[in-house]
Amino acid sequence: MKRAPLAIVLALAACAVETFEIPLLGPYREPNDPCREVAPGRDTTPLMAPDSDLVACPNDPAVLQLFIFDVSAVEVKRFRDWVLLRVPEP
Question: pLDDT-based confidence at 1, cuts 50/70/90?
Answer without folding.
Answer: low
